[in-house]
Write a structure and sequence with these properties.
Layout: H1 5-22, E1 26-36, H2 42-59, E2 62-70, E3 75-83, E4 100-103, H3 109-117, H4 123-134, H5 138-144, E5 149-154, H6 159-168, E6 173-176, H7 187-192, H8 198-207, H9 218-225, E7 233-237, H10 242-249, E8 257-263, E9 270-272
Parallel strand pairs: 1-2, 6-9
Antiparallel strand pairs: 1-3, 4-7, 4-8, 5-7, 6-8
């Protein structure tokens, strides 16, 4: 996804730590999980692990060791253990009707990194995407803890639409405010140039007929199917508290936005406004 080994480590660690934040928890310690080719330069591994360690330190989580094996390609991640107050534990499938949906990071990192691999993304756009992926969801999660959150998930490989379906879970529905969606700079240009990822296509196939995007501009639909690495939190918060929480989150995550509302259950679980 990225060429720089330390950056790769930072993004992988932020991605792994996000699962704890999405449950309203605090990470306590982590184990490195590494697959590394026998013939590869060990200095790459040192940089990857250093990047991961930086993010663990930022998260306040101790690195307690890890496991490594030889493999044909480089793989790295963390197994993270955290703690959560059981009275404030966030499920990913229990939003309340009338709750507003806040997305804390911009969409589009899959598309930008695909364009970068093809040599078509600008340095500025790649830098913005990397900055988003490296940024911990710690800060948004800490701020959300003071508000009435009914459900939360982090937006990762399945993209916004599939993760929203995960949240509605056949019990409620959601209206998405397309004009409010946060996204990385120049993303429409890259989609218009057909930098559509294989993961985005698989997400579209997975969702199938459950969600009708046929009336949306193509670039908006593809943005919502785009798989995210270390994406933002999708928070369902009491409607009267949404603006205050958003303003608080935007201090550290300036592109955060209210992107929708939870409604009563209906056949079309996700509609677009």
């Amino acid at each position: 996804m990225v060429a720089d080994a330390r950056t790769f480590g930072k993004i992988a660690a932020a991605n792994a730590l996000s699962d704890i934040y999405a449950m309203g928890g605090k990470p306590l310690y982590a184990l490195n999980i590494v697959c590394f080719p026998r013939e590869a330069d060990n200095r790459l591994l040192q940089e990857i692990l250093a990047g991961g360690a930086e993010k663990c330190t930022e998260a306040g989580a101790a690195l307690a060791g890890g496991h490594s094996i030889y493999d044909e390609s480089i793989k790295y991640g963390l197994a993270v253990t955290g703690i959560v107050d059981t009275n404030k534990f966030y499920r990913n499938d229990a939003p309340r009707v009338s709750d507003k949906l806040i997305l804390t990071k911009p969409l589009g990192v899959g598309i930008i990194t695909a364009a970068d691999r093809g040599g078509e993304a600008t340095a500025e756009d790649v830098k913005e995407a990397i900055g988003s992926m490296e940024r911990l969801n710690k800060y948004a999660a800490e701020k959300a803890s003071a508000f009435e959150i009914s459900a939360c998930t982090d937006i990762t490989g399945f993209g916004l639409i599939a993760h929203t379906l995960e949240m509605t879970a056949g019990n409620v529905a959601a209206d998405i405010y397309c004009d409010n969606l946060p996204y990385l700079s120049n993303i429409k240009h890259y989609i218009d140039e057909e930098w559509i990822t294989g993961g985005g296509t698989r997400n579209r196939d997975f969702v199938g007929e459950r969600v009708d995007t046929s009336k949306l501009p193509l670039w908006i639909a593809e943005l919502m199917f785009d798989p995210q690495t270390s994406g933002g939190l999708l928070l369902a918060v009491k409607a009267e508290q949404a603006d205050e929480l958003l303003n608080t989150i935007k201090v550290d995550d300036p592109k955060a936005a209210i992107i929708g509302i939870i409604t009563e259950h209906r056949d079309n679980e996700i509609s677009f406004k």
